[in-house]
Design brief:
about 10% strand; alpha+beta; two-stranded parallel ribbon; about 80 residues; two-stranded antiparallel ribbon; 3 helices; single chain; about 25% helix
């Protein structure tokens, strides 16, 4: 549950922080609808569907992604349950 909380707090912070190079918010509300939540591992968890709280979509696994370059990547803030 801490991982979920860290992602929510990270997205909240990005929605109130201004990018000094553009003078715009780092993340707008409409941007959240385009977020794709990706898990590094292929394990399933009984709480995977709770992640829909974040983006409204089910998360996917890294192994399900097509190879390629990602335009923007958001990593959660470091904390007790973050792998960083």
């Amino acid at each position: 549950m801490m991982e979920l909380w860290q992602v929510i707090v990270t997205l909240d912070i990005l929605q109130v922080s201004i990018d000094p190079s553009t003078q715009e918010l780092y993340l707008r509300r409409e941007d959240i609808q385009r977020i794709l939540l990706v898990f590094e591992d292929d394990g399933d968890s009984s709480i995977d569907e709770l992640w829909m709280i974040v983006t409204g979509k089910s998360p996917i696994r890294k192994s399900q992604m097509e190879p390629g370059c990602l335009r923007n990547v958001i990593l959660p803030l470091p904390g007790g349950s973050a792998p960083f």
